[in-house]
Design brief:
Number of helices: 1
Structural class: alpha+beta
Helix content: 10-25%
Length: 111
């Protein structure tokens, strides 16, 4: 997909404000949704969005869907199942998120 030009690899994200994402090379893109997939060590303290992290600094979510519209997590340990943080198991969580991004469900109701 990357070689075919359908996915554009961008450098490190340095800023996100509303729907505007700014990258290290100062290029920008406007987005409707963000799915943030972290590496092996989770550190979410840099996410300065009210209502996303609990008092311990962990994401507040239901199966990766946060109370902030358009902000999702994927690949978290035990996000939904034992395999959620593994390459072999993350696919089911990704499918769940895509369905909810394309057709928001009642799970979005955080109030």
């Amino acid at each position: 997909m990357i070689k075919g030009g359908k996915v554009i690899v961008k450098p490190r994200t340095i800023s996100i404000k509303n729907d505007l994402v700014v990258f290290e090379d100062h290029s920008e893109v406007r987005v409707n949704n963000v799915i943030w997939s972290t590496g092996f060590k989770s550190d979410f303290q840099w996410i300065a969005v009210d209502g996303v992290l609990d008092e311990k600094g962990s994401p507040i979510h239901q199966r990766g869907i946060t109370p902030v519209e358009g902000l999702y997590f994927l690949g978290l340990p035990w996000q939904y199942s034992r395999g959620s943080a593994l390459l072999q198991g993350v696919g089911a969580d990704a499918e769940y998120l895509i369905k909810n991004i394309l057709e928001p469900s009642k799970i979005r109701n955080w109030k």
